[in-house]
Amino acid sequence: MKLHELTKITTRPKKKLGRGIGSGKGKTAGRGTKGQKARGKIPLSFTGGLPLYKKLPFKKGKGNPKLTTKKTLLDIVKLDIFKDKTIVDLEKLIKTNIISEKQARKGVKILNKGKLSRALTVRLPVSASARKKIEESGGKVEYD
């Protein structure tokens, strides 16, 4: 057994500050000289007098994800992988890895691009031309 392998059985006591000059940590007690930080407690949120919200950029409209989240646009061709008379909704799209859960939270809209050769029941928002194409292929749209 070596010295560095021994288990630690004692902990050092906390160094006492401000107990006179002879203690080694007296007078300024490790705080330097003068200034705001030497005098007392400052809250952690304190940023030099200017509030944090004033240091941050304006968040209005464009560039603010809370206001400008756009739906995921999905082409009608991608629905052609489903079998006939399948009900297509967000859960089905996530299961088949057509969209991710993050995209599903933003919302999905189906657009008319490509051909659809299957009769599907779609429970998602669709464009007017996509609705027409789904109904022509024998399917229907059940979205309010």
Characterization of this structure:
- With 144 residues, this protein is an alpha/beta fold.
- It has a domain at 72-141: Ribosomal Protein L15, Chain: K, domain 2.
- Helices cover 20% and strands 10% of the residues.
- It is built from five helices and five strands; from the N terminus they run ααββααββαβ.
- It has helices spanning 36-39, 52-55, 90-95, 101-106, 128-136, and strands at residues 72-75, 87-88, 108-111, 121-122, 140-141.
- The strands form two sheets. It has a three-stranded parallel sheet. Strands 1-3 form a two-stranded parallel ribbon.
- β4 (121-122), α5 and β5 (140-141) form a beta-alpha-beta unit.
- The longest helix is centred in the last third of the chain and has 9 residues, at 128-136.
- The mean pLDDT is 87.
Topology:
Blueprint: H1 36-39, H2 52-55, E1 72-75, E2 87-88, H3 90-95, H4 101-106, E3 108-111, E4 121-122, H5 128-136, E5 140-141
Parallel strand pairs: 1-3, 2-4, 4-5
Q: What's a concise summary of this model?
A:
The protein has helices at 36-39, 52-55, 90-95, 101-106, 128-136; strands at residues 72-75, 87-88, 108-111, 121-122, 140-141. It has 144 residues and is an alpha/beta fold.
**Which fold name is given in CATH as the topology of the domain at 72-141?**
Ribosomal Protein L15, Chain: K, domain 2
- Largest beta sheet, briefly? 3 strands, parallel
Distance between the termini: 77 Å
Secondary-structure-derived class: alpha/beta
- Sequence of strands across the biggest β-sheet: 2-4-5
Task: Give start-end ranges of low-pLDDT stretches.
Answer: none
CATH class of the domain at 72-141: Alpha Beta
CATH architecture of the domain at 72-141: Ribosomal Protein L15, Chain: K, domain 2
Average residue-wise pLDDT: 87
Give the strand content.
5-15%
Number of helices: 5
Taking all Cα atoms into account, the compactness measure Rg is: 33 Å
Shape: elongated
Count all strands and give the number. 5
Order of helices and strands: HHEEHHEEHE
Helix content range of the residues, please? 10-25%
